[in-house]
Amino acid sequence: MKKASTNIIYNAVYQLLIIVLPFVTTPYVARVLGKEALGINSYVNSIPVFLSFIILMGMNQVGVRVIAQSTKENLEENFKKLWGLQLLSGLIVIISYIVVVCLFMSYKFYFLIEIPFLIGYVLDISWFYIGRGQVKTVVMRNTIIKLTLVATIFIFVHSEQDLWIYLLINSITYLANFVFWLGIKTEIPQFKFGRIHFSKQYLKESITVTIPSVAAQFYTSFDQTIIGLLAGSVQLTYYAQTQTMARAVVQLLGSVTIVLMPIMAKMDSEEADENQIQNLLKVSLDYTLILGLLFTSALMVNANKFIVWFFGSRYQAMTDNFFWVSLLVVIIPYGGIYANQFALSKGMYRIVAIPYLVGAVFSLIGNFVFAGRFGANGGTTIIVLTELLVCGMRIWLVRGHLDFKFLWHEHWKYWLIFGLTLLIGLHIPINLGSLFFDLVVQTIIVGLLFVILLVGLNTRVRQDLMRLKKG
């Protein structure tokens, strides 16, 4: 359990870095590239991101679970079978991508720049290290890449004409995934590259998991392709950029799931006490909901001033998009616990898949109907409704396996605290003459109010703090 706590800390620190870095790069890129180029970037990038999930073949789920449950004797064999599927999928995707881009796509040059990005995903075996509990290895590698990426953006990107450089930098950094292969002999001393194995069993499991992962990309990546086609690059910029901060916070809250899923998978394979699993799930749900609501309230209260300060006055039109898309901060991680932390750890792939598929259909229909007519506003409405639908289905589908009365104890208090904090925060006038200081003061007020209400309503936060104080 000590190792699990250490892994959570490492991963949380990395996720904090992911939140901080957009604060450094996005204002610069938004001002240097402009709305049109940013929209083209989002459009071009959306398709390779979509394809990357096909290349991975569900390894972040199936791979992590299988490796976590592997013994010393079958570790090498299982790894080769898993990566063999990823390699085959990657080759098919990359060849198909090149053919389609050369024959049919506009922005051919920009799309071809994304090939190193796709190759990087073929080389990505971070799932192996996560399954082995070596989260530190993954975090350190990703941290170095992120910092290098930021530095090169400031060095080489200076105008709208540098869009191709910006795309190239973001693409080639993924080739650094080869670093994971340098340490494979440490984890598997007898490892030899030799013949790559294929497994029908893992193929079936991977396809089962990949289908929902790809379906999810229809409303988290491919939706940008649709909005770019129907509403234009400027509206796509408003739609995509307002999700930057929200999804960064989602990654932070999801870091606990990344660490706990292999632990719960191992507990399940060892037939651990069901109460032990439910208790672990309860802690995860409580603090994910609390932190999600805290971040959501802070983002919503600061929406108007944050857009002008962060992106510039030219982007003020996307304030409403930012306000409503902030709801994703609580919706996605909370629903993700039921799917990625519980259902997936138990191999309930069908339960994991259904919400993604329904969400994909809803998003596609919704965006084709509303994006062309309402632009970014229509897209934002659809993404929030889609994530609500997916979250609700995730909860409904595991209802027969969990004790909701136990798991949801006190959750009404957290939602009440969120409502009160948002209501009060939106009506406190803060005008210090500086947007930055306005944001800092307003965030502190929201945070203090939220914590005071948590303690005042005698929630588990107060009880846990008392336990920590007693030692």
Automatic annotation (TrEMBL):
Keyword Transmembrane helix included in the entry's annotation: yes
Topology with respect to the bilayer: Multi-pass membrane protein
Sequence intervals crossing the membrane: 12-30, 42-62, 83-107, 113-131, 138-157, 163-184, 287-310, 322-339, 351-370, 382-402, 414-433, 439-457
Any matching Pfam family: Polysacc_synt
Coiled coil: none
Record's keyword annotation contains DNA repair: no
Keywords: Membrane, Transmembrane, Transmembrane helix
Localization in the cell: Membrane
InterPro entries xref list: Polysacc_synth (IPR002797), PolySynth_Transporter (IPR052556)
GO cellular component: membrane
Major localisation: membrane
The protein's name in its UniProt record: Teichoic acid/polysaccharide export protein
UniProt organism field: Latilactobacillus sakei subsp. sakei (strain 23K)
Lineage: Bacteria, Bacillati, Bacillota, Bacilli, Lactobacillales
